Amino acid sequence: MRRPVDHAALAAAGYFAELSVAAGAEARFHLSTRDPDARVAVVRLDRAPQPESTAWPVTRSGVPATVQSLDLGAFLTITPPERLLSAAWTLALEFRLAAAAAGRTLIASAGATLRFADDGALMLEGSAAATGQILPVGAWLNARICSSEGGLSCAVTRGGETLVALSVASAAPAPAAILIGADLAHIGPTMNLGIGRIDLYDAAGQTVAAWRFPPVGRPARLAPVEGGGVLEIHNAPAFGLRSRRWDGSALDPRLRPEHYDAVALHDDDLAAADWQETHRIAVPDSAASGVYALEIATATETTRWPFFVSPKRRQADLVFLAPTFTYLAYADERLPPERFPWLCDDAGHRFAKANQLTSLYDTHNDGSGVSLASFHRPLATLRDDYLYPLCGAPHLLPVDLHLLRFLHAQDIRVDILTDADLDRGGLARLEGYRGLVTGSHPEYWTAALRDALDGFRDSGGHIAYLGGNGGYWVTAFDGDTIEVRRGLSGIRTWNSAPGETHLATTGEPGGLWRHRGRAEHDLLGVGLQAMGFSRARPFHRTPDSYAPDLAWLFDGVGNAPIGESGLVLDGAAGYEIDARSPRWKTAQPARLLAIAEGFDSGYVTDSDATEDGLPAPAHGEMVLTQSGSGSMVFAASSVSWCGALPQAGAMNPVGRITINLLRRMAG
């Protein structure tokens, strides 16, 4: 259903065609605003607390600044082959209602529509209307709609039982198009339903087209397995789901594809906003790598929409890996206040809820988990002034900017790459760098990203893991979209259904990297141990931290607690904290440098990380792992760590350790 953007929370919103842009290239932006006179400029975000102006030119396209629309809801369009010329035809399909369907349309074509009345009863509309009964939610059903000289008829069956039989006197013409899950005018909400096999027959009962959904892949157009015609798939429904043939005998769709030849349509699916390009930013060839933003000033407010400039050639010995997959996973989280108590307000969440945008932490309107997220939509919570309502503090980008500003003030130079850059370019993108620095919450990793990080360490590169909950979820990246299946364990907001843990994008198992034999502990030395939104705790040094060979790391630190205050929950160890695990071993010994304890009951431990599966007391462990390649991996083990860095002109133990570490890494 197409609807104009609701700008009550944000007067201007938009997205970049690519979040990462190389120096010398163009950044392309797509804007929606209620202010036609909105002013734009490019600013830099990662050097000072206040944005720094640039002189970069911004070119307007011929598209006026106006309120754009969002076309929400997945549906299918069948274009029959030319041989279907008569008024005698039959469409058969498997379907499963995922939610009450009152007022929605199941099948629509000229002269033949099968929809649900306001009371939920199924209706067949031709020149007249025939009304059936309310269908069960959650069961696989078969629908068969037939047009012949005798009129138009429809039957819905379950197994051998006929649930609905409807007919009207007039036949329908051969359809030019058939919509499944949406009305012809596309003005009403789409349906929440599963769709399985689809077959189209001619007057003689011969198959003219048959479609089967692949268990691996997310096509936008699907050729028939028999016959002609085209099936168009709109707005990225979820593929690789259990069909009516699923019996639990195979949990890998690649083994029994006929058990997973179904898709799920949701009325809040959104593949991409598909707005017209409105602005182009010419990034100078000599531009320094960094975090920039298109600043949009309307009559009522100013918002900044960030993008990342990667270097044309390496400019530093260290590289900061911007966790844009994690940014995207959290972006536009609905966080309804009736379910989650808000400790502060943020316009991005109100914008997302008003426009029915979703994050990978949300569930669809039918209660199923959201598994797909596109960069090509307004990421309203990806802002330098963002505050996370559940903890009343900055989260993600603003915390990472705090780190980058601290490094700039200390004259520690870093280039910037995004995880999308590393996914596409692999280990070659890290050539020449001595060390890699993560952000505060690098939670979502693809296989290619993990391969590149492993290869970097194994070739002698150092890693400063300055966050928490890193490398946790298996993620697939396809064009502008990431996919996550939550699996059945780990700390999460929704569960995948049994058998639906594989990523449709690639076919690989989803869930936690631990369960793929690539635990985050093996690379980082630690993994998620607990999470909570109550007050953070400081770290305290362990005896091993006083060893002579570690004096360089703790130079100037002393014996005081490490991180007694900070931007994120007022401490260095908080939000999500990591530790070594007796279950998930590391290839190299991880030396325990400091520990954070004494967390209150607001922190929930990850029982998956314990040896016996039982909860353990929440604690965070700062560790250092050194490998035979000469590399070292430092783990701060906390989402709050970067937020505990001092402001410019000040110093504290968190800042001193970070400086000592990165200068050592840079050589």
UniProtKB/TrEMBL annotation:
> What is the originating organism of this protein?
Dongia sedimenti
Task: Show where the N,N-dimethylformamidase beta subunit-like C-terminal domain sits.
Answer: 259-646
Protein's recorded name: N,N-dimethylformamidase beta subunit-like C-terminal domain-containing protein
Which Pfam families does the UniProt record give? DMFA2_C
Q: Which InterPro entries match?
A: DMFA2_C
